[in-house]
Design a protein that fits this description.
- A hairpin with a 2-residue loop joins strand 11 and strand 12.
- Among the domains are: about 170 residues, 3-Layer(aba) Sandwich (Rossmann fold); about 80 residues, Trehalose-6-phosphate phosphatase related protein, domain 2 (Alpha-Beta Plaits).
- The two termini are about 30 Å apart.
- By secondary structure, it is α/β, with parallel strands linked by helices.
- The longest helix is centred in the last third of the chain and has 18 residues.
Length: about 400
């Protein structure tokens, strides 16, 4: 899709580079980004077989560095009446960072000017995007006002939630049936029925949702289910002595949360968590480790991620390769970078990174937190309603 606009919005050109060392932004924050052929609905997935081999020690292999890089400290503010006083230079660095990743709210007119005559498709992460990051992942509830904002936006734009959570769990959290869901980083997709040659894909199952509506379930890593379940049970057992560690079964991936590990001995504790995960997955060459915000995730070694999920859903909605379609992906985590990359490199649409701290990204725009995400969604609805008058 040619992203040059008649409205003069230079939205897909990179702003001038900024000096990251001057801002105190670590250069190693560029997230994991897999390679692989572009999605083709007629192409059967191949599962590469990694050669077995002993992994390096967690310190030597850089696991701890990656854990720290993916888990930046929260910004601390001191409130005095109506003023917020920043305790360090973080706010200055953030304002300079937004020169490269401008706010999607302050740039809203630019976005909508480009979106005229186009069909917007929304893709949303869940944790840290629609709900705040919380200490207990089982309590990451979205607010009623956020749910209302999502419900309203679905009236005007095809919308999908793409989460690292299991699909069932994120469906339960969101509680809306009008949109599409992709769990386990896109390895478990519930989408519309496609009437195309790809309907007979071996990883696609015709099913019905809770309302009896016919849907397609696409599960490219289905053969890994017994293996992931086995690893999940092993991780629960090996980490049960680490206070604050929590293992979550997200169906096609196993997540080890270390957010609540005692911060007083944070380095040793994080190292212990990393060593436990290392000791388990070293015997599973067909599984790999990825890093999120204070979480380690064990996933199948297949060429599938949130970027591939975006492509699959666009294909399912018959919206791929359409010049009048504008996909927008909003997410906060390293795994969302795969989707940002697809939209940027394919000149397809916009990635919006949700972050209150500076970090490298393939996104074009930024939002500070879920409250700004909600305002952005409300703004889209107001814009759509006013443009229909």
């Amino acid at each position: 899709m040619d992203m040059k606009s008649n409205h003069g919005a230079p939205v897909l050109t990179d702003p001038a580079p900024i000096n990251k060392s001057r801002l105190g932004i670590p250069s190693n924050l560029l997230p994991y980004s897999p390679t692989g052929a572009a999605f083709s609905p007629s192409l059967h997935l191949t599962i590469p077989r990694k050669k077995p081999g002993k992994l390096d020690d967690v310190r030597a292999s850089g696991w701890l560095d990656a854990m720290k890089a993916s888990s930046p400290p929260r910004k601390k503010l001191t409130k005095d009446f109506n003023f917020e006083v920043v305790s360090d230079d973080t706010d200055v660095a953030y304002r300079i960072w937004t020169l490269k990743y401008p706010s999607a709210l302050t740039s809203f007119e630019q976005i909508t000017n480009y979106a005229k005559e186009k069909r917007i498709v929304l893709f949303l992460d869940y944790d840290g995007t629609l709900s705040p990051i919380v200490d207990d992942p089982e309590c990451a509830f979205m607010s009623d006002s956020m749910r209302s904002a999502v419900r309203n936006v679905v009236k005007y734009f095809p919308t999908a939630i793409i989460s690292g959570r299991s699909r069932d769990k994120v469906c339960e959290f969101v509680g809306l049936t009008e949109l599409y869901y992709a769990g386990s980083h896109g390895m478990d997709i519930m989408g519309p029925v496609r009437h195309s040659v790809s309907d007979d894909h071996p990883n696609s199952i015709r099913s019905t949702d809770e309302q009896g509506k016919e849907v397609n379930l696409f599960q490219p890593a289905s053969e890994f289910l017994p293996m992931i379940d086995e690893v999940f049970r092993s991780l629960v057992e090996i980490t049960k002595g680490i206070k604050g560690a929590k293992v979550e079964n997200n169906k096609f991936c196993a997540s080890v949360h270390y957010r609540n590990v005692d911060e007083k001995v944070i380095v040793a504790s994080w190292a212990t968590v990393a060593q436990c995960v290392h000791d388990i997955i070293k015997d599973y060459p067909r599984l790999r480790l990825t890093h999120g915000r204070k979480v380690l995730e064990v996933r199948p070694v297949i060429k599938w991620d949130k970027g591939k999920a975006v492509e699959f859903l666009l294909e399912s909605l018959a919206l791929s390769n359409c010049g009048d379609v504008l996909p927008i992906y909003v997410g906060d985590d390293r795994t969302d970078e795969d989707a940002f990359k697809v939209l940027r490199e394919g000149n397809r649409g916009y990635g919006i990174l949700v972050s209150s701290v500076p970090k490298e990204s393939k996104a074009f725009y930024s939002l500070r937190d879920p409250s700004e995400v909600m305002e952005f969604l409300k703004s889209l609805v107001r814009w759509k309603e006013s443009s229909a008058l």
